[in-house]
Write a structure and sequence with these properties.
By secondary structure, this protein is mostly helical. The protein is 70% helix and 0% strand. It has a two-stranded parallel ribbon with strand order 1-2. α47 packs antiparallel against α50.
């Protein structure tokens, strides 16, 4: 031994030995048991450490390759299992501090060389050192080294994030570990000055830069997913914790206060003798200076850091008495921003738009913090502090308004926050605010519009509460009357602002509103009207004023009979002033004759828009006042008596003093502008229709003329096809948004217009509706994010509404146009043959339903037509046409003369089919339902795709057709189809066409679209056959014809009567099997539901079904023969054989045959089932990835195992369970796959266990118990364990009685013991948590629930606690954590509910387990800087809710636990003191602990106050105070009113 020792040691120390040999020798010495050295591990660690240190201290110059190998050796040693085992055994092995120094030095070199290629081993070494307590002492004992490491790692991470390279996880894993270690050390430091100095000197700058880069990086797919989703969030949270604990400790507050209030005397006497010259604010400001980072990042990093630092400062020091200090901190941090230079009079052109955006965002966050923490108290600031805060915010407002940035959303938000702080801050600059943020602001983008509307809404709210609305709108008027900044000034009121204005106007006194209106009317009369002619600027001002008048008049509270008379009189005078002072002069101006070139001038267009908007507003409001207020006398009332033209509904009936000739000239001018003018003319016409309809006798001709005028107005612009979205603002209609506004008006008022328009106009509306829907998809993709209205949205809105089916005429016309579009898709050469039926379905002279005639004839609606016979003849004509078309289609299908469609025609068909699917098919009238059915049937059976077409597209078209046919036949008018078609003809035509089409699909049988298509065929056939049976539509005849057709089919190229199988087509085979399966299933189901008295019908159906079953058997057998040997079964065959077996089993209706199921099954068929069963058992274990196969196979086994006589010879139920066990232990099986097929597995086992013998059941139990043996997990057979655990859980779902039940529960203690051992082993490997531990917890919970009253030994139940105390609840991914949490909770709840006696004896174990749950949910639900994934947070909230539920249950149901209530509360507050919970999580936990506090008596409260440590005691006092204030008071209030 001595020779070995001396030899190795001398060779390692010898200069003659090459480094290559030394490394080989060192590796051998580490792993070999033959090499025995005293303290060998420490010797080898010292050797490699010394070698690396000597190299970096330049004592020995080693080659780079040797150095890398030395690092690799050190890394292997640190991570070796041998070292870990030694340390676990208590042996002391350590490293020297120089190792930490050289690691830091190596990382520093990598940072300065800007290469991170060769530091992976060094990072791995540092990770191993930090995660091993006995080694990490080299960093934790010398904090300077740990700080240096953290600084170097942060800089390296910044370097990696700033580059374009993909981000890996190794560096960030080490960084997170280092942060965690440093935070532990930082908490233990007693000297806050030293911590502050260390953080500001070494960590502040790299941490702030790192946080910015983590937040700002645009993550790509190349970046590591764990870094993007988890580590980046965790590291940002750690940075915030580090900065808060390092910079803003409670002991440092006096330093901050002394520095920030240096000009004032401190209001408190200094406590103690602690005196310092520390200037913390100045230090932090200096660190945010130019040396923070590269100039390119500097502005962005400072902007992001300032708000963070202020937030952390407030979190630490914000109390009512410290608000002035907090404000001064705000002003000092604001001075770090570049905006502060502008406040002092700097130039704004030094900032680019991107810089402005970041700076304003930082300012917004600062102001938000001020507002949310209530830093600014207006009264306190004015009385005590000489308005120091007000002065600061006032300068901010001036700076923001001087340097307007209306294109940046944060600019509006900053002004809104200043308004929220105190409206007097911006009051002196109200005109500038109104101008730059509203009237003249160019906020056209949606992201800017919303904050702008929020700001103006806030202004409205403030000034309406202060009752200073007139003052605000005086400024608005002043700004409007200034020369416009832009030639086309934006609209004053958007839709959002109009809604806010409405809210404010409803709260204002009416006289204030009238003051504002009178002000605008007066200014318009005196300043604008006289100068509007020829002036574009004045015309724009006029438009703005008129839009304000429109907004106020339309949104103010209407006059009614309780309105005071002075207000009514004043309103009358106002309406008269508007009519005489504005409308009349404008009408005179517009009706003046002009040359053609003058009519297109901009001023005239704007003047026309303003005038017509005001006329429409005046007419509408005047009519409303007249209806709602009996005291109101309209200015039009005087002339209405003397003017005979009123009864002809001329303009003078609405607007007094305006002649018809003058109005016609104005209309002619207004109609030439596709803008607000034209739209207002349509609104006026609609208003005229409404007023006519309110009369006792309507003028039908006038109504028809008015409706025709509205439609005619927009036809020319609608036909151009060019439009853009409209935001609903009448004053902002342009030439491109006019078509949208017009269509919106027509669609919104269809119920008024439709009875008075001609059939031609109905067809026009139907045509436009269809055309716009065809373009809807492209337009919706572009405009879906915007809240504005588009033509496509309007049309889709009508299609989705319930109104369209009520408008029978339009509904029918729309369907007619749809059919025309289908007919136009067909190639021109074939339209005469196949297209002819479709064209016949759109013939206009055939009345498709009676309502068309009644609604489209221009007759007096009071006349009752007496020609009922004519209508009946016309109706019979439509049905004769439908019958003729149907026969024609069937004939074409039988003759096999399909139309060949190209790809673009198929795409067009699909688009039309999607429009059909938008309609409410169940609302069609019988004739329309039949027409639609015939069109879809024609498309399905009389068209084919060309060879070059996309097969997936063709499948989609066929699938959609079948789906729509199914929807129609499921509707209330499905019988109407059978008036013109025989059911068997439909089924035969569909199957013939689909079998023929299948020749295209032989190479797409594995794609999902094919499976969906086959499913649709099956559902169509099933629904149709059920309809035939349920509605008794010649059941025997139709079924016989369809069955004989199916029997005659061969799955070749689709031709019937073929007798050879040479052209066998697997796609057609699947389809034919689907048809056979569906037919057997429907008929079998019907047979089972037949009452005994109808056994004759059953015999008839059985006789019909027999040839189908035989043919089906032949098809299946042939398919199996054609299947390649050793290939899996085709999935489509399995449901067919299952249905065949079900049909055979349900065949004997007579009771005596049910005793011997195998007696009536024909021997060849029994052979088929057994072969199929054997094949499925063979394939089952390998099919873990094919979920569809598994579900079908398990369904077959469920039916097969229900008849034990069907098992092949020498096979038992054990074989089925063995196959399922092998399936569950397969590599592709996951817990998600098991959940998705759990129902099918349970059904199989119910049949297997229900029909097996006791001996077979004992064998199954042995199989399960073997899988639960702990050696499986030792041998790395995790899936073997999973399969046994799953089988145990499934067995618990099966009804076990008699000896089987006794055998299972006899083995249950052994199971629980095995599960406890498995959990203990599995918890050592985190990868097995979700695979094994979670299923074990679910199984244990099920065992405990089912074992209520059976598991009588308390020890067996107590074993469950050992499982719960073993399971880890920390350092898990959120998904794994939630799975484990739910499992642990379910086990606890099962014990609480089902085993309360055991619980009392094992109370400490229960409390420990539950306390672990509470601690874990507090850790996961703590407040973080970035909340992250919302779905993950919802999971945490669910866990918190379950903890609340457990607390509530303990308090309500477990009286014996009262004695432990104080301990439960103590545990809770102790943990609460360590974390800051997210408010939502805290709400749940607090509600739960309140229920435990209900159990606490006065003695418990005194005990807690006396025994808890100081910090925890304060937390408890706060909790108990809230409990008394909120919960106890509420509870006492409820008890007071409880009987």
């Amino acid at each position: 031994m001595a020779a070995i020792y001396s030899g190795i040691y001398l060779k390692l120390k010898s200069a003659k030995t090459s480094w290559e040999d030394k490394l080989k020798l060192a590796r051998f010495a580490w792993i070999s048991h033959q090499c025995v050295l005293p303290n060998k591990e420490q010797v080898l660690l010292d050797w490699v450490s010394q070698a690396l240190v000597s190299n970096y201290n330049k004592k020995h110059e080693l080659e780079d390759e040797v150095v890398e190998k030395l690092w690799a050796y050190l890394d292997n040693v640190i991570h070796s299992k041998r070292l870990q085992d030694l340390l676990k055994s208590g042996k002391t092995v350590g490293l020297s501090f120089s190792v930490a120094e050289i690691i830091n030095k190596r990382l520093s070199e990598a940072y300065s060389e800007k290469t991170q290629q060769n530091i992976g081993t060094v990072l791995s070494c540092s990770s191993g050192i930090l995660s091993t307590p006995s080694l990490s002492i080299i960093y934790t004992a010398k904090c300077e080294l740990l700080v240096d490491l953290l600084s170097k790692l942060s800089k390296l991470a910044c370097q990696q994030l700033a580059s374009d390279d993909a981000v890996g996880s190794q560096l960030f894993n080490v960084l997170q570990l280092t942060f965690a270690q440093y935070l532990l050390i930082q908490r233990q430091q007693a000297n806050p000055n030293r911590v502050f100095g260390r953080v500001t000197s070494h960590l502040l700058q790299p941490c702030l830069l790192l946080r910015h880069l983590l937040t700002a990086r645009s993550w790509t797919q190349a970046d590591d997913n764990h870094v993007c989703q988890h580590l980046s969030r965790e590291i940002r949270s750690q940075i915030e914790t580090l900065l808060q604990a390092g910079l803003f400790q409670p002991e440092l507050f006096s330093s901050y206060k002394e520095e920030l209030l240096s000009e004032q005397e401190s209001q408190e006497k200094k406590k103690g003798a602690w005196k310092t010259l520390l200037l913390p604010v100045n230090t932090v400001q200096t660190k945010l200076g130019s040396d923070l980072c590269e100039p390119a990042f500097h502005g962005a990093v400072v902007a992001g850091s300032v708000s963070l630092l202020y937030k952390l400062f407030l979190d630490s020091y914000c109390k009512a008495e410290n608000h002035l200090v907090c404000f001064h901190m705000l002003s000092r941090l604001f001075s770090c921003l570049r905006l502060s230079d502008l406040q002092e009079g700097g130039k704004s052109d030094t900032l680019f738009p991107v810089d402005w955006s970041m700076e304003l965002l930082a300012l917004e966050q600062l102001l938000n913090l001020v507002l949310s923490n209530d830093i600014y108290n207006v009264a306190s600031d004015r009385i005590r502090h000489k308005e120091v805060q007000f002065g600061f915010y006032r300068k901010l407002a001036q700076m923001l308004l001087t340097h307007s940035q209306a294109s940046i959303p944060a600019w509006f938000r900053c002004l809104k926050l200043l308004m929220s702080l105190n409206h007097l801050i911006v009051e002196p600059d109200l005109d500038d605010l109104v101008s730059s943020a509203w009237i003249d602001a160019e906020a056209s983008e949606p992201r800017t519009k919303k904050p702008q509307e929020t700001l103006i809404s806030t202004i409205f709210q403030v000034y309406s509460k202060l009752r200073q609305f007139p003052r605000l709108f005086e400024q608005v008027l002043t700004v409007i009357c200034r020369p416009a900044v832009d030639e086309l000034r934006p609209s004053v009121f958007s839709a959002g602002l109009t809604a806010k204005l409405r809210e404010c106007l409803l709260e204002l006194p009416p006289n204030q509103i009238l003051d504002i209106l009178c002000l605008f009317v007066e200014k318009c009369q005196t300043l604008i009207i006289p100068a509007v002619e020829g002036s574009v600027d004045m015309a724009l001002k006029l438009m703005s004023v008129c839009s304000v008048l429109h907004a106020f008049l339309f949104n103010m509270r209407s006059l009614d009979d309780v309105t005071p008379s002075p207000v009514v009189l004043r309103t009358q005078h106002l309406m008269a002033d508007i009519q005489k002072g504005i409308i009349q002069p404008l009408m005179e101006l517009l009706q003046a004759p002009r040359r053609e070139e003058e009519k297109s001038e901009l001023w005239l267009r704007k003047a026309s828009d303003a005038a017509l908007l005001l006329v429409y507003t005046w007419v509408e409001v005047d009519a409303l006042f007249g209806v709602s207020c009996s005291k109101y006398v309209s200015p039009a009332a005087e002339t209405a008596v003397t003017e005979p033209a009123a009864r002809h509904w001329g303009i003078s009936a609405f607007l007094p003093g305006l002649k018809e000739q003058c109005w016609r000239r104005v209309m002619e001018l207004a109609s030439s502008f596709a803008s607000t003018s034209k739209y207002c003319l349509e609104l006026l016409t609609l208003q005229k229709m409404k007023m006519m309809l309110m009369q006792t006798k309507a003028d039908l001709q006038a109504l028809q003329h008015a409706a025709a005028f509205i439609l005619e107005s927009g036809k020319s612009t609608m036909s151009r096809g060019k439009s853009e979205p409209w935001d609903g603002d009448i004053s902002a209609i342009t030439e491109l948004s006019y078509p949208t506004a017009h269509w919106h008006l027509v669609m919104s008022n269809l119920t008024i217009l439709l009875p008075y328009i001609s059939l031609k106009d109905v067809e026009y509306i139907a045509n436009v509706l269809l055309e716009t829907l065809m373009l809807a998809e492209a337009q919706e993709a572009a405009t879906d994010q915007e809240p504005s209205i588009s033509i496509a949205k309007i049309s889709l809105g009508l299609i989705h509404s319930s109104l369209l089916p009520e408008m029978r005429v339009l509904h029918c016309a729309f369907l007619t146009h749809l059919i025309q579009q289908f007919a136009m898709v067909l190639p021109s050469a074939t339209r005469d043959s196949v297209g002819l039926p479709l064209q016949q379905l759109t013939v206009t002279n055939i009345p498709w339903h009676e309502e068309i005639l009644a609604s489209c004839k221009s007759v007096d609606p009071l006349e009752v037509p007496s020609e009922n016979k004519v209508q009946k003849d016309e109706l019979s004509l439509s049905w004769k046409t439908l019958e003729k078309v149907a026969q024609c289609m069937v004939l074409l299908a039988k003759n096999g003369c399909p139309v060949i469609l190209k790809e673009h025609q198929l795409q067009r068909c699909l688009a039309l089919l999607e429009i059909v699917s938008l309609l409410k098919l169940d609302s069609f009238l019988p004739s329309d339902c039949t027409r639609c059915f015939l069109v879809l049937l024609s498309l399905l059976v009389n068209t084919r795709a060309s060879v070059s077409c996309s097969k997936l597209l063709l499948l989609k078209v066929l699938r959609t057709c079948l789906h729509l046919l199914r929807c129609l036949q499921a509707g209330r008018n499905s019988n109407s189809v059978l008036k013109v078609l025989h059911a068997s003809d439909v089924l035969e035509a569909v199957m013939t066409s689909q079998l023929t089409a299948c020749k295209f699909f032989t190479d797409v049988l594995t794609v999902p679209v094919w499976a969906q298509y086959v499913q649709e065929v099956q559902e169509f056939l099933e629904n149709f056959l059920q309809m035939i049976i349920e509605r008794r539509q010649s059941v025997k005849l139709n079924l016989e014809k369809f069955m004989s057709f199916l029997v005659s089919c061969r799955p070749d190229t689709g031709a019937a009567k073929s007798i050879d199988w040479k052209n066998w087509n697997p796609a057609a085979e699947q389809l034919l099997l689907t048809a056979f399966t569906t037919l057997c299933h429907v008929v079998t189901l019907h047979l089972q539901q037949l009452p005994e008295k109808k056994l004759h019908s059953a015999d008839v159906l059985c006789a019909l079904l027999e040839p189908v079953v035989l043919q089906m058997v032949r098809t299946v057998e042939h398919g199996l023969q054609c299947n390649t040997p050793n290939q899996p079964l085709p999935v489509a065959f399995i449901p067919s054989v299952t249905t065949l077996l079900k049909a055979d089993l349900s065949h004997p209706v007579k009771k005596d045959l049910q005793k011997e199921p195998s007696g009536f099954l024909k021997q060849p068929r029994v052979k088929l089932y057994r072969e199929f069963y054997s094949q499925i058992l063979k394939e089952l274990p390998c099919a873990g990835s094919n979920l569809q196969f598994l579900q079908f196979a398990l369904q077959f086994l469920t039916v097969f195992c229900s008849v034990p006589e069907l098992y092949p010879e020498k096979e038992t139920a054990v074989m089925v369970v063995f196959a399922i066990k092998k399936l569950l232990s397969g590599p592709a099986i996951t817990t998600q796959v098991i959940r998705s097929m759990e129902m099918e597995l349970t059904e199989v086992l119910v049949q297997v266990l229900g029909n097996c013998s006791d001996e077979e059941f004992y064998a199954i139990m042995r199989l399960v118990l073997q899988g639960l043996e702990v050696r499986n997990i030792w041998q790395q057979k995790a899936k073997e364990v999973l399969s046994a655990v799953t089988l145990t859980k499934l067995l618990l779902s099966c009804p076990l009685s008699g000896d089987k039940g006794k055998a299972f529960w006899f083995a249950s203690p052994q199971m629980i013991t095995a599960l406890a051992l498995q959990t203990k082993e599995a918890c050592q490997d985190q990868a097995l948590i979700s695979i094994i531990v979670v299923p074990i917890l679910e199984t244990v919970a099920a065992l405990l629930r089912q074992g209520e009253g059976i598991l009588v030994n308390p020890h067996h139940v107590s074993l469950a606690f050992s499982i719960l105390l073993t399971v880890p609840l920390d350092h898990l991914k959120t998904e794994d954590y939630c799975g484990v949490f739910l499992g642990v909770h379910e086990v606890l709840f099962s014990i609480v509910q089902c085993h309360p006696k055991v619980l009392l004896k094992a109370a400490p174990s229960f409390l420990s387990s539950f306390h672990r749950l509470v601690v874990s949910v507090m850790h996961e639900g703590r407040q973080k800087g970035d909340r992250g994934n919302m779905d993950e947070f919802e999971m945490i909230l669910k866990c918190a809710h379950l903890v609340e539920r457990m607390y509530t249950y303990i308090a309500a149901e477990m009286e014996d636990f009262t004695v432990f209530s104080a301990f439960i509360v103590a545990h809770y507050v102790t943990e609460l003191q360590k974390v800051t919970l997210h408010p939502a999580v805290k709400t749940h936990l607090t509600e739960g602990i309140y229920h435990i506090l209900d159990l606490c008596i006065e003695r418990d409260i005194k005990f807690l106050n006396a025994s808890l440590p100081a910090g925890v005691r304060q937390v408890f006092k706060d909790l108990y105070s809230d409990y008394n204030h909120y919960h106890k008071a509420k509870k006492q209030g409820e008890e007071k009113y409880t009987a």
